[in-house]
C-alpha cells in the first residue's frame, strides 16, 4: 500500500488539523493510501519519531486549534543545534540523516505544512531528492504566490474581536489605546484587523510612519470631540527615523529574530507629545490559538485535498496556492523567492485612507 507522510512545522495556527484531516481522508478514501504523521515538525524526522494515523485519528479534528502532530521551530535539518560551545549553540547539517529517515518510513511523498521557514527547508530537502508538496500556513500571510495562507483569516478574526473590546475602554476612559499585533516583517494582519476594527491609525512595516503625524492625528481627533483613538501597530512597524524593534534572539531557532515592543515605544512618545493618556495591549499568541474560522476550514480542506491528489499523481516540488477563486500549484522555489509584503498601493490601503484612517504618513 502506498504511503504519504505529513509534517507540520514552525509556529502553529488555526486550521492545521483541518489540513491534516483533509490530506489524510482524501488519501485514504480516494487513493487507498496509508498516512504517517511525523511528530514535532522536522525534529521528528531527525529523531525518527512518527506514527501511523488511523481514520479515527483524523476524524472530528476540523475545529481543533494547534496541531495533533506537534511542531517545532528549532529543527532545521540543514542547521540543527547539536550542542553548546560555551554560551554559543553548535550547529550541524543532519539533512542526509533526515532524508534517510524519511526513506525508512516507506512514504512516497512528504506533505510539508508550514510558513516561509518550513517551505525553505522543504525546498532544500526536495533538492536532495526527497519528494515534497508544500501547503502554505501562517497567520502572517507572507508566503508569496498565494493570495492567502490558511490561519490568517482566523488571526484576523481574533485580532478584530480584541480591537472591538479595546474600543469600549478607549471610549469610556477617553484614552489612546494601542494594540500590537504579530505579522513579522509584513503588515497583512495589522492592515486587515485594523480596517475591520475601525482603527484610527494603522502602522505597518511597509509604510514607515512619522511620529509627529501620529501624535497630531490623535490630538486632532480629540479636538474634534472624538476623545479616544485606536492605534493598531504591526510588530514589525518602524518609524521613518527609527528601526524595527527586536524583542529577543532565539539562537537555536530556524528564524532567530523575535520582534516586539514597538507599541510601547510609540505610546511613550504619544504621551510625551500630546499629554493624552495612552495604554498598550500586546495581543501575542492569542492570535495563533483557538478554532479556525469557516473560511480557514474551507481553505484548509481545499489545500489538503489537492495536496493529497498531487501526491497520488506523483507530483513533487510544488506548493498548493489560492489565486483568485482557484486552488493552483506553484513551484515551491517561486513561493520562497521573496516575502509577500503589502504593496503600498494595495486597494485596502486606498480604502482605509478614504474612510479617514491614518498610516502615519505626512
Ligand atoms: O510566524 C508566525 C508568528 O506568530 C509571527 O507573527 C511572530 O513574529 C512569531 O511567529 C512568534 O514566534 P514565537 O512563537 O516563536 O514567539
Structure description:
The chain has helices at residues 16-31, 42-46, 95-105, 116-127, 152-173, 188-196, 211-223, 262-274, 294-312, 332-335, 347-354, and strands spanning 3-8, 34-38, 50-53, 80-85, 88-92, 109-114, 132-136, 176-181, 201-203, 229-234, 246-249, 257-259, 278-282, 318-323, 326-331. With 362 residues, it is of the alpha/beta class. The protein has 2 domains: 3-150 and 290-335, Rossmann fold (3-Layer(aba) Sandwich), CATH 3.40.50.450; 154-288 and 343-354, Rossmann fold, CATH 3.40.50. The strands form 4 sheets. It has a 7-stranded mixed beta sheet, sandwiched between helices. The protein is elongated. 6-O-phosphono-beta-D-fructofuranose binds next to β12.
Give the DSSP E fraction (strand runs of 2 or more residues). 15-25%
- Measured as a percent range, the helix fraction is 25-40%
Shape: elongated
The CATH topology of the largest domain is what? Rossmann fold
Structural class: alpha/beta
CATH domain class of the largest domain: Alpha Beta
Report the span from N to C terminus: 63 Å
What are the SSEs and their pairings?
Elements: E1 3-8, H1 16-31, E2 34-38, H2 42-46, E3 50-53, E4 80-85, E5 88-92, H3 95-105, E6 109-114, H4 116-127, E7 132-136, H5 152-173, E8 176-181, H6 188-196, E9 201-203, H7 211-223, E10 229-234, E11 246-249, E12 257-259, H8 262-274, E13 278-282, H9 294-312, E14 318-323, E15 326-331, H10 332-335, H11 347-354
Parallel strand pairs: 1-2, 1-6, 6-7, 7-14, 8-10, 8-13, 9-10
Antiparallel strand pairs: 2-3, 4-5, 11-12, 14-15
Helix pairs in contact: 1-9, 5-6, 7-8
Bound molecules: 6-O-phosphono-beta-D-fructofuranose.
6-O-phosphono-beta-D-fructofuranose binds near residues 11 and 73.
Amino acid at each position: 500500500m502506498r504511503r504519504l507522510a505529513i509534517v507540520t512545522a514552525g509556529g502553529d495556527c488555526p486550521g492545521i488539523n483541518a489540513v491534516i484531516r483533509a490530506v489524510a481522508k482524501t488519501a485514504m478514501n480516494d487513493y487507498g493510501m496509508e498516512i504517517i504523521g511525523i511528530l514535532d515538525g522536522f525534529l521528528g524526522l531527525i529523531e525518527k519519531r512518527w506514527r501511523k494515523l488511523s481514520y479515527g485519528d483524523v476524524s472530528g479534528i476540523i475545529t481543533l486549534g494547534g496541531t495533533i502532530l506537534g511542531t517545532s521551530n528549532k529543527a532545521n535539518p540543514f542547521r540543527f543545534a547539536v550542542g553548546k560551545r560555551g554560551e554559543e549553540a553548535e550547529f550541524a547539517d543532519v539533512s542526509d540523516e533526515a532524508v534517510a529517515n524519511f526513506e525508512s518510513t516507506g512514504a512516497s511523498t512528504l506533505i510539508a505544512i508550514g510558513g516561509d521557514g518550513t517551505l525553505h527547508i522543504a525546498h532544500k530537502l526536495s533538492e536532495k531528492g526527497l519528494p515534497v508538496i508544500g501547503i502554505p500556513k501562517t497567520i502572517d500571510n507572507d508566503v508569496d504566490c498565494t493570495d492567502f495562507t490558511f490561519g490568517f483569516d482566523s488571526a484576523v478574526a481574533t485580532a478584530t474581536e480584541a480591537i472591538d473590546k479595546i474600543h469600549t475602554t478607549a471610549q469610556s476612559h477617553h484614552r489612546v489605546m494601542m494594540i500590537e499585533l504579530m505579522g513579522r516583517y509584513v503588515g497583512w494582519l495589522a492592515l486587515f484587523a485594523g480596517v475591520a476594527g475601525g482603527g484610527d491609525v494603522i502602522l505597518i512595516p511597509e509604510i514607515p510612519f512619522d511620529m509627529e503625524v501620529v501624535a497630531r492625528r490623535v490630538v486632532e481627533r480629540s479636538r474634534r470631540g472624538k476623545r479616544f483613538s485606536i492605534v493598531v501597530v504591526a510588530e514589525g512597524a518602524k518609524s521613518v527615523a527609527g528601526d524595527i524593534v527586536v524583542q529577543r534572539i532565539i539562537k537555536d531557532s530556524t528564524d532567530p529574530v523575535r520582534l516586539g515592543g514597538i507599541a510601547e515605544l510609540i505610546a511613550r512618545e504619544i504621551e510625551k507629545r500630546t499629554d493624552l493618556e495612552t495604554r498598550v495591549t500586546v495581543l501575542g499568541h492569542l492570535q495563533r490559538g483557538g478554532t479556525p474560522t469557516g473560511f480557514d476550514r474551507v481553505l484548509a480542506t481545499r489545500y489538503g485535498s489537492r495536496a493529497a491528489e498531487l501526491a497520488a499523481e506523483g507530483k513533487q516540488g510544488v506548493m498548493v496556492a489560492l489565486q483568485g477563486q482557484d486552488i493552483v500549484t506553484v513551484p515551491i522555489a517561486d513561493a520562497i523567492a521573496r516575502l509577500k509584503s503589502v504593496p503600498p498601493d494595495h486597494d485596502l490601503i486606498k480604502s482605509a485612507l478614504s474612510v479617514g484612517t491614518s498610516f502615519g504618513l505626512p
